């Protein structure tokens, strides 16, 4: 089997045993990238020299018997380009930061390298993580490896496409309203948004600080658990990072995923108008698999959160984005346009540096935070957010996990929604509520539809209970199988 078909777990074991050299892994990965990247445009920055140097160091450690028990030894990984890596550009898919080089590593980078991983590149993304298709990138759109005419989802579309195409068995993105789970669903891979605060956000360029969370993409549930074991650590550099202990996620599924007696909630209201019929069937199929393995189905009513979560999100997220992006003014760092006055410099720099979608959200956010509208919009949005949290809290007093759709449709074609922002926003309608409540959620591969495009479901759990999601996903993977490489990745 080709190296690019191997899981992270398999690569790590082979490198550790000496049967496979880290240098061979890196060479295979870059060959794969160079053969497909012209069509996919999944990456913004390659780290070939850094990766080869790192691989040489790992092979030397192994040959001298100096290696330690590193769970990702020799495993190539890709990071979304809003995660800082020292000495490399962190552009956030924007002209504003196109030439900005990070002076420090994000905490997740430190954790991955301590675990033996090899960073190979930074992935394409919607500008400042604002979008659902990776069409809003200053570096051009990314293609879906299952169908090059379709989008890979967003905003972490480059990371999802990279894993689906075989560039790496593991990649990382950020999820503010579905930006891991939605592209995972579109690209036919697993993608998890952990509980807010489980993973450090230090070194993640902020979009909406109360919603953003880093999470992994993988092709197997086992690799997902491995990734969480590595990145889910308390970090004193991030004041929002949870101080509680974390379990071993891999151990929770290593000896078999027992789900007997697990109460699985299903929200029938979410299965009605607007949901693609084959995706609705995938949810029912996933529920059937869990029930056949001992889970107990429970019908749930989540009130009207499907209707209220979207407008709530598009008040809170743009408000926080407006505040966070105020720092890009042409004075401190990033793009700087020459001007005769400070105000003119602000206007010219932000006018040229930001794309249309970012400008749209900044204007919305500035409006809802303005003195005349703060109470009518932002304060009310916070109250609706509390309502969403309460409805989920009530639901989880009755069930252990919830199974629901990841997206309302299969991946759409490039250009289809780019001029219709409302329809674009609706593609995240099933993922947004999870971010508002700070819950963990995971998109799980469910095979292909009649057109050969990926199908998926979403599994949600209470805060800090990622292990429940992994156990349920493992049972589904035992029936459906691990995620294959997309046709564009063969």
Task: State the main characteristics.
490 residues; alpha/beta; eleven-stranded mixed β-sheet; 16 helices; single chain; globular
Overview of the structural elements:
The chain is of the alpha/beta class. It has helices at 8-17, 22-40, 48-63, 107-114, 157-165, 181-187, 221-231, 249-254, 277-292, 305-324, 342-353, 356-369, 374-395, 421-426, 432-437, 466-480; strands spanning 43-46, 76-80, 118-123, 170-174, 190-193, 214-218, 263-267, 296-300, 401-404, 441-448, 454-460. It has an eleven-stranded mixed sheet, sandwiched between helices. Helix 9 (277-292) links the parallel strand 7 (263-267) and strand 8 (296-300). Helix 5 runs parallel beside helix 6, helix 7 (221-231) runs antiparallel to helix 16 and helix 10 (305-324) packs across helix 13. The longest helix has 22 residues, at 374-395.
What is the H/E string? HHEHEHEHEHEEHHEHEHHHHEHHEEH
What's the number of helices? 16
Rg, nearest Å: 21 Å
Overall shape: it is globular
User: Beta-sheet strand percentage?
Assistant: 5-15%
**Largest sheet entry:** 11 strands, mixed
Structural class, from secondary structure content?
alpha/beta
* Distance, first to last CA: 12 Å
Number of strands: 11
> Taking all residues together, what is the mean pLDDT?
95
Poorly predicted segments: none
Q: Give the strand order, joined by hyphens, for the main sheet.
A: 1-3-2-4-6-5-10-11-9-7-8
Helix fraction by DSSP (H/I, runs of at least 4): 40-55%
